[in-house]
């Protein structure tokens, strides 16, 4: 299980939601009078590629946090009920920690809680109340999915694995139905846009989701995040099989600039990943096997990491540990990675299989699908 030090994982489902406004002060006021053990509260968030950690203790039953933000961003707050300090808190497993996810923005965010921080009620924040409703709807399903995924990892019997996978798939269908119902019933809520993004997934295109997006209120569509999502839908229409892969240049692990077009004449898997991305790391062993099988047949992989500046060591360690011997590049700007923006990457893992002529052949293939596609395009007989 992951430690709390990976607290940004808590933020992933809500990442990159940005409503630009004039820079000003945010104030979080937590009424914690029912938290009789008076825990220290810690606030974790990112802004402009930088990590921030703040703390507050009770004063007359109230916790106060203040800071400067220039847009609406998602944060995580954790309660240290043992009052043993931040470092001990970070060593705990995520399921052992009392954690709350919400948004901060310029102005006052008020809330009150019972004995647990996670039982908070927002008193003056519409967007947080809406997101809380969405979270309450999805949480039982997500918990059950996590339980089944843990069982699937250790299952050895094929029949048992198949049963578990079918159950997980059924839960995903049910969860997507919840998201769909939410954005249909709440078109004027900014939370509806988030539900739509979750429902649509990274493969969403303007043809499939443009009409649905237009059913959201004009106010929601015109937020910077609404405009960004619409652009993402448009971009998916251009970054498809048969279209030319946009060229780019980015630094590798040694600081040397690597250009995509320098691989012309080879099949290239452009692989977007990060050291903190569990699904990416899980797929890497299978990807290594495909690379070893096809690397002498004019095939290579170019990894683009969405790690951040202070995650450079973790990036390099992941490359070494997973045996990723192909070229790796990154500007260490997390979701603001220039190549990720160029390719409209809003979640990972994502990938593009590019032909020797620089044209996209396919996208988002897992290792097994990649192998079959390479056999097909190279006309290789097994």
Q: What's the CATH topology name of the largest domain?
A: Glutaredoxin
Estimate the helix proportion, in percent: 25-40%
The CATH class of the largest domain: Alpha Beta
Give the CA-CA distance, first to last residue. Answer: 39 Å
Multimeric state: single chain
Task: Write the H/E string, N to C.
Answer: HEEEEEHEEEHHHHHHEEEHEHEHEEH
- Uncertain parts: 1-22
Q: Which strand order do you get reading across the main beta sheet?
A: 13-12-11-14-15
- Our count of domains comes out at 3
Q: How would you classify the helix and strand content by structural class?
A: alpha+beta
User: In this structure, how is the largest beta sheet organized?
Assistant: 5 strands, mixed
**What is the H level of CATH, i.e. the homologous superfamily of the largest domain?**
Glutaredoxin
Q: Which band does the percent of strand residues land in?
A: 15-25%
How confident overall, as mean pLDDT? 87
Our count of helices gives: 12
- What is the name of the CATH architecture of the largest domain? 3-Layer(aba) Sandwich
Subcellular location: Cell envelope
GO cellular component, one term: cell envelope
Organism: Pedobacter duraquae
Keywords: Cytochrome c-type biogenesis, Disulfide bond, Redox-active center, Signal
């Amino acid at each position: 299980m992951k430690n709390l030090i990976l607290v940004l994982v808590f933020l992933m489902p809500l990442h990159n939601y940005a409503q630009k406004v004039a820079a000003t002060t945010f104030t979080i006021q937590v009424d914690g009078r029912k938290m009789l053990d008076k825990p220290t509260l810690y606030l974790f968030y990112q802004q402009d590629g930088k990590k921030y950690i703040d703390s507050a203790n009770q004063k007359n039953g109230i916790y106060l946090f203040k800071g400067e933000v220039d847009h609406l961003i998602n944060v995580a707050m954790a309660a240290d009920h043992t009052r043993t300090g931040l470092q001990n808190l970070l060593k705990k497993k995520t399921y052992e920690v009392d954690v709350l996810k919400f948004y901060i923005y310029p102005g006052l965010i008020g809330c009150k809680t019972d004995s647990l921080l996670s039982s908070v009620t927002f008193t003056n924040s519409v967007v947080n109340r809406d997101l809380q409703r969405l979270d309450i709807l999805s949480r039982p399903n997500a918990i059950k999915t996590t339980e089944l995924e843990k069982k699937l990892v250790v299952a050895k019997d094929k029949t048992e694995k198949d049963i578990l996978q079918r159950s997980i798939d059924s839960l995903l269908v049910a969860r997507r139905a919840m998201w769909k119902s939410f954005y249909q019933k709440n078109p004027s809520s900014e939370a509806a846009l988030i539900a739509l993004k979750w429902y649509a997934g990274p493969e969403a295109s303007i043809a499939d989701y443009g009409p649905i997006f237009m059913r959201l209120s004009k106010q929601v569509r015109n937020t910077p995040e609404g405009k960004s999502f619409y652009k993402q839908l448009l971009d998916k229409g251009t970054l498809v099989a048969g279209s030319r892969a946009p060229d780019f240049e980015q630094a590798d692990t040694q600081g040397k600039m690597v250009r995509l077009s320098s691989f012309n004449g080879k099949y290239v898997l452009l692989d977007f990943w990060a050291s903190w991305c569990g699904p990416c790391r899980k797929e890497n062993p299978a990807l290594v096997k495909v690379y070893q099988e096809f690397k002498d047949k004019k095939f290579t992989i170019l990894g683009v990491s969405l790690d951040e500046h202070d995650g450079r060591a973790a990036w390099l360690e992941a490359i070494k540990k997973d045996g990723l011997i192909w070229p790796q590049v990154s500007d260490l700007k997390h979701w603001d990675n220039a190549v990720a923006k160029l390719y409209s990457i809003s979640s990972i893992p994502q990938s593009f299989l590019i032909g020797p002529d620089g044209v996209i052949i396919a996208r988002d293939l897992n290792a097994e699908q990649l192998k079959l596609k390479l056999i097909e395009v190279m006309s290789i007989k097994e």
